[in-house]
Specification:
Layout (H helix, E strand, L loop, with lengths): L1 H5 E6 L7 E7 L19 H13 L5 E7 L3 E10 L7 E2 L3 E9 L8 H15 L4 E7 L8 H4 L4 E6 L3 E7 L8 E2 L3 H6 L5 E6 L5 H16 L4 E5 L2 H5 L9 E4 L2 E4 L5 H11 L1
Length: about 270
């Protein structure tokens, strides 16, 4: 019975079948670390185990991860969200539910699954009597785009360079509007000279990024990087750019605002050194 209460069956039309049974499954401490995330199917990978350990710790802070599964596609996608006071992004979003990530397998896009996951978040926010739901999107790589949120009633309330946007779905028009923390340049200058790698357990790509870039920085450029590992949401909210949980600064300049490969790092450094 306990497992049944965690699973929600949804009936909907899809392009492949007239009607399909879709399960929305909430991750628990017991199954965290045993299912794929971010499109990777090998939960034993170091980066993904690091992520799952992060998830289990954050569940006590209200973090939820809900997975969408179908009989034909298996695990098709997932959504991760948390009360805005404890968001791992550089935002002010008190009394809003904040979406960290939403992911869909490429083959499963265009079937309305993303909307179902967003609705799960909206439902939980209303149940908790919050003011609404907020999310950071971007035009460039790595993060969700704005289209899914626009069609689900979200409005853009603020932008940040290079292409970040803060979208909000308000339940109460009179409620305070979420915002970016801002003061990006001032915060970047605090890191001073040299190479700084900012990382956290919130993104499973970070373990490989830190290992690869540290080795290349040492062997190719003779640089010993400073590694800043955010261990709580307060540190992430004070980051010098909206995404907050993964990036690189060189001499106080933000040179990568999401996880990057070793090859991309070499291309950046060829221009900087």
């Amino acid at each position: 019975m306990a497992n049944e209460k965690k699973n929600k069956l949804v009936m909907m039309k899809t392009s492949g079948t007239p009607r399909a049974k879709i399960q929305i499954i909430e991750m628990t401490p017991k199954n965290a670390g045993k299912v794929p995330l971010c499109g990777h199917k090998n939960p034993s990978n170091e980066g993904y185990q690091h992520k799952f350990q992060w998830i289990k710790k954050r569940m006590s802070e209200g973090l939820k991860v809900k997975m969408l599964s179908t009989p034909d596609d298996g695990l098709a996608g997932y959504i991760e969200y948390v009360p805005g006071e404890r968001a791992w992004r550089a935002v002010n979003a008190e009394n809003y539910m904040f979406i960290h990530c939403i992911y869909m397998q490429t083959r499963c896009k265009g079937r309305g699954y993303g909307t179902l996951l967003v609705k799960e978040c909206v439902k939980d926010a209303k149940k908790a009597d919050m003011n609404g739901v907020a999310v950071v999107t971007r035009e460039g790589t790595f993060m969700a785009g704005k289209e899914l949120f626009l069609k689900n009633g979200f409005d853009e309330v603020e932008k940040a360079l290079p292409d970040f946007s803060l979208f909000v779905k308000k339940f109460k028009k009179s409620a305070p509007t979420p915002s970016f923390k801002g003061q990006w340049d001032k915060k970047r200058k605090k890191f001073g000279k040299g190479l700084t790698i900012i990382t956290s357990g919130q993104c499973p790509q970070n373990v490989k990024m830190v290992n690869d870039i540290t080795e290349i920085a040492r062997t190719r450029y003779g640089i010993e990087p400073r590694i800043v590992d955010y261990r709580n949401y307060r540190q992430a909210q004070n980051a010098p750019w909206p995404y907050a949980v993964s990036g690189l600064l060189y001499n106080g300049k933000l040179v990568a605002d999401h996880p990057i490969s070793g090859g991309r790092f070499r291309n950046i450094m060829e221009k900087e050194v």
